Amino acid sequence: MGSRQIILFQPRDPEDAGAGMAEIGSPRSVERTLRPFNIAPDGAKGAIGTLSFYGPGLVIEVPIAADEINQLMASVDDEETAWPVLARICRELGWKMMDPESGRTFM
């Protein structure tokens, strides 16, 4: 079974996820934000134009070409391990998750 893709973002209006995405920050500030959740780069080079941050059951791709980032792509390899981490990120940071296939937003 392949990995599941999830988009992480911070909504402009926490009560209305359809209101658009707010800026999350620069690639380095995103790295600092995710470290308390045991998510960090491992020093390896990611795909061209991205940094790969590794965490429990997931990999998050962060674009490095943009000064400000408004969404992150998480590849979930182990849902049982990754889901509590993603839920905690959303709860503590006020972020949301979106299934890119269905467009459904949750958390």
Description:
The chain is an alpha+beta fold and 107 residues long. The chain has a single domain (4-106), classed as Double Stranded RNA Binding Domain. Helices cover 21% and strands 38% of the residues. It is built from 2 helices and 8 strands. The protein has helices spanning 27-34, 79-93, and strands spanning 4-13, 16-22, 40-41, 50-55, 58-63, 72-76, 96-98, 105-106. Strands 1, 2, 3, 4, 5, 6, 7 and 8 form an 8-stranded antiparallel beta sheet that branches. The longest helix has 15 residues, at 79-93. 21% of the residues are buried. The mean pLDDT is 90.
Question: What are the defining features of this structure?
Answer:
107 residues, alpha+beta, Double Stranded RNA Binding Domain, eight-stranded antiparallel beta sheet
What's this entry about, in short?
The chain is an alpha+beta fold and 107 residues long. It is built from two helices and eight strands.
Q: What is the topology?
A:
Layout lengths: L3 E10 L2 E7 L4 H8 L5 E2 L8 E6 L2 E6 L8 E5 L2 H15 L2 E3 L6 E2 L1
Antiparallel strand pairs: 1-2, 1-6, 1-7, 3-4, 4-5, 5-6, 7-8
Q: How many strands?
A: 8
Structural class: alpha+beta
The CATH class designation is Alpha Beta
Describe the main β-sheet briefly: 8 strands, antiparallel
Please tell me the total number of domains.
1
Distance between the termini: 24 Å
Q: Report the total helices.
A: 2
Radius of gyration: 13 Å
**Silhouette:** globular
Strand content: 35-45%
Q: What is the overall pLDDT average?
A: 90
CATH fold category name: Double Stranded RNA Binding Domain
Residue share in helices? 10-25%
The CATH architecture assignment turns out to be 2-Layer Sandwich
Low-confidence stretches: none
Order of helices and strands: EEHEEEEHEE
